[in-house]
Design brief:
The protein is mostly helical. The chain has a domain at 5-44. The chain contains two helices and no strands. Helix 1 crosses helix 2 (22-41). The longest helix is centred in the middle third of the chain and has 20 residues, at 22-41. It is elongated, with a radius of gyration of 19 Å.
């Protein structure tokens, strides 16, 4: 994934982040790179049973 400054600035502007400073853009580039690395580490072959169950109770039950 390309994280050069012009690419990051274009991506930020595309989602409405038009007032970022160079420091903000550097932080965004670092976060984008980190997210890409973490995404690559995720297991893809999960089954429905691997999803944790969610149990909610309505108040008063």
């Amino acid at each position: 994934m390309s994280t050069d400054s012009s690419d990051i600035k274009q991506r930020a502007e595309a989602i409405g982040l038009t007032k970022l400073t160079d420091k903000h853009l550097a932080q965004l580039a670092k976060a984008t790179q980190s997210a890409a690395q973490r995404k690559q580490q995720l297991t893809v072959d999960l089954e429905i049973a691997d999803e944790p169950s969610h149990i909610f109770r309505a108040k008063g039950e």
